[in-house]
Amino acid sequence: MIxxxxxSFLICLPIISHSAAIKLSSGDEINVEILxxxxxxxxxxxxxxxxLTIQKEQVIAITNNEDKAAEPELIIADATQVEAIEEDKxxxxxxxxxxDLIFPDFRRSFSLGVKGKNDETxxxxxxxxxxxxxxxxxxxxxxxFRSDYSKEGGTGTDNDFRGFVNRDWLxxxxxxxxxxxxxxxxxxxxxxxxxxxxIVGPGYRLIKNDTLELIGRTGLALxxxxxxxxxxxxxxxxxxxxxxxxxxxxxxxKFGTExxxxxxxxxxFRNLSHLDWIYKLTDEGSNRDLSLKVTMxxxxxxxxxxxxxxxxxxxxxxxxxxx
Length: 323
Hints:
Layout: H1 2-12, E1 18-24, E2 29-37, E3 41-46, E4 50-55, E5 59-64, E6 73-74, H2 79-88, E7 107-117, E8 123-135, E9 139-152, E10 155-170, E11 176-187, E12 194-208, E13 212-226, E14 234-246, E15 251-262, E16 270-280, E17 290-301, E18 311-322
């Protein structure tokens, strides 16, 4: 209240004519010479429009042209306006753990699922995942990783890791987009040690409404396996889609699938599919988002080693914490 009174007093004092930039509530900004300033209006001289009288309620800020580095002079009518300005300010996202360089302004989450049993055949199953995504009118990022570890009867049964980065180039006036994706896979129990995949191509938004978004994609994929008998660089055609379906306020289903077929052996294929059902446990405005997630991953490969299975389905339940 004291600050408001002092500011109101200062702006009522007579001032010496000077050049300034005035930002109006309409969004316009004009460069003028200020001739007179009172508590209700400002009288100015414009190089084209001549002398003008501007009411104070139409003014957002005044910046002296003689000192562009100076902070704008706010025109404050009363304490109610001060409170409204503060409420309109969006909270600043300083990145994960407060570090500005770690995914600032991204939606970030960490998932954890653990299952254990201790009897004649002890068993443990641990799944972790991290997701960070960002979207504006011109670009979209999806970054994350998945990791699984399982052990039964003292013997490991699953130990794998997948990391990915996807970038979409968007056009606000079109449903078309272009994308590039890089993926790293490591699996202790596969015929290969690790696998690198890169994909580039166009995408098209097939459906977009308040509850459902469906995007189709196709492109050229390059795959290379390391530590495998077949370690050649393979060019593939990729066709897939991903969807985001909001069933209700707290229910969301996300699904994505990609089919790959090599150009040299067209007709053979492999498939990667992923399904998430997410139930939000916290209300809007909570300090940390907490959700329950049921997820399924399916992988099929036409060509595998004799001791490997062609397909694998993994499903799990976990808690998701917003970071």
